[in-house]
């Protein structure tokens, strides 16, 4: 079966297609074409190979009429498409050969593609991994999102500071996308609602005086691995609705026409670069309703093409809400069912509550979306009426279950204190609520969503996150992928649990050497990348100790860099002390307006500058900040890592998914008992990870009952005191000793102890330093390290997004796999 797909790729046809594309697109021969032009030509040739499968899959969906999941998400962090598509077509070998024969290096061509960075971090990348798994497992699925003109900003580091540069990812066109104007939908904003009573005495609600935008879908193919399935990611662009010619309007209409035009221009302009931080921007609510209204309309229209009875919609459709960002889908579906299909409230509610399911990705209170009533009702007047009615009925239900308990209403109502609480709307109106790692789900049930869990325990479940091994091992780490396949066969590509077969090699010295040799080669590849992009030389024989993820105080990059400052102090004081050379690697984007995050980037670069240029420590420590961390360079970074820094304050990281990518590539986790780290340690064994710090219970106890005073640690621990003083005495900011004072204050604020060190950095410092010593000792034991690293790979099977998707299918979505008819 798998072999057949590989054979069905016609290498000669592909070669001719590339040459032809270069000619017709650019009037050039292969020799004359630029690498970018060849990338375009190759991509169109690959798209050719995809399109037939895409049509067949969609035809089969039409014929078999299976239930579909619509994964609704503001973010899809796809990264590059070309290499991944080639891999999933199982065409890597023939394509590589064909290109070689044309005198072209496949890697250089892949490097021409800009990342599709339509997401911030974990939540957006999870959506991308889920699409890969859904297609590979043969489940009918749509991703629905926004075609941002500018994705996640590009990060430049100037003088140690982050600069945000617009990400014009569509500059050279996107060869894989398909514009589909024939499926455009109109989306209405603002105005007011009028009620008309018709001849049957029925009330009809009509939004009037509104402004509207046309939503134009662009479809991207999602290629399943070796199974001929091609699903669709549909992202919506906005265009002004066709108006009469502007000049023929009287003044009022002219005004409106211009406003409508601007609305369309602005709405999909840019991805908000906030990760886990709600800002309450009006344009963001417009973005949410824009893509949700278009997607829900499209789903309903598609359903009605084949079915008569909209009251059975939920039998064929399920909407998975990726956090609260798409939650307005609930009210929009109610609106369409009632206002356009004339269902009664109860009928519409019966459908909606069996269609929508909600995933929670965070317990951080600052990430919760709460829209002011004024804004919400002004922008979405009809939708707001519906939310009000959902709230009225929900509050009534609470009163029935907890008579006289006003506290419950205050805590649980959807609308309260002038705000619409989107999580409450999602929980009250959906049939499923899930967390993204076991610990996270437990915290939701016991703390954050306790009242909801008590009232409707059956809705709650856990779905521990996962990642796709196709991108993060097969594509990102070809040397290791080949080594694994050589030893245990290739089944792991679609069944990651097969990796357990590698356990027998953990103690095999030859295997250990081969494994460490591959790691070494990958470290050379990363060292070359760092030299080319950062101009810093690093030693691939040193320990590569890596923290790559969004910059956030709860993720504690500050703990990492403070510890590096401490190590440097020690090396300066005791030049002869035993020390295994270490390269500390960071990669992180900070939200543009997040002061402490940006200052932490500056600190990392300032410390790096000092340490990297201090000849007296003989290069024993290097600190590298990789500019513009993104999916494409992440693949190179994971493959080259020895130590995986997963050091969030326990209870704060819902799951983490980078942790899984490191593990899959044989890095050892240095982490707290937080998020999915707990399950990683459970799989690989405590002896093959290094764990430190407060437990989530301890953190939550301090948060609820107090009793932690960072000043006490400052007073009693001279190592901590020394690095903290270095933050404010100009050690790393000669010309501006106060530069890092905000970071110092965040740890020790003498004005208010309750606000000092909210992420327990000083509390965990000593335990972290101890853990880092254990890492060094472990690495000195070469065989022991190789053993642990191999076991990490061997035990990472649980963390495939294939497993996660199977759990969603079984417990929430109830989809059937689609089998394609055998090709003649
Ligand atoms: C409200 C808005 C500004 C907002 C935008 C983005 C809020 C949150 C986010 C993004 C959240 C996010 O990425 N959460 C991460 O989701 C991952 C996938 O489940 C988890 O692994 C990770 O722990 C969590 O922080």
Give a short summary of the structure.
This protein is α/β, with parallel strands linked by helices and 824 residues long. It contains 32 helices and 25 strands.
List the SSEs and their pairings.
Layout: H1 2-7, H2 11-26, H3 35-64, E1 68-72, E2 76-79, H4 82-88, H5 92-101, H6 106-110, E3 116-118, H7 122-137, E4 141-146, E5 154-158, E6 161-165, E7 178-179, E8 185-189, E9 192-197, E10 203-208, E11 211-223, E12 230-240, H8 251-267, H9 282-306, E13 317-322, H10 328-340, H11 345-355, E14 356-359, E15 370-372, H12 373-379, H13 381-401, H14 406-412, E16 415-416, E17 419-421, H15 422-429, E18 432-435, H16 438-448, H17 450-455, E19 460-462, H18 469-475, H19 478-488, H20 509-534, E20 543-548, H21 557-573, E21 582-587, H22 595-612, E22 621-625, H23 631-639, E23 643-646, H24 658-664, E24 668-671, H25 677-684, E25 690-691, H26 696-705, H27 710-716, H28 718-728, H29 741-748, H30 761-780, H31 782-794, H32 801-813
Parallel strand pairs: 1-4, 1-13, 4-12, 13-14, 14-18, 18-19, 20-21, 20-23, 21-22, 23-24, 24-25
Antiparallel strand pairs: 2-3, 5-6, 7-11, 8-11, 9-10, 11-12, 15-17, 16-17
Helix pairs in contact: 2-3, 2-5, 4-18, 7-32, 9-10, 10-11, 10-13, 12-13, 20-31, 21-22, 21-28, 27-28
The protein binds ligand 26Y.
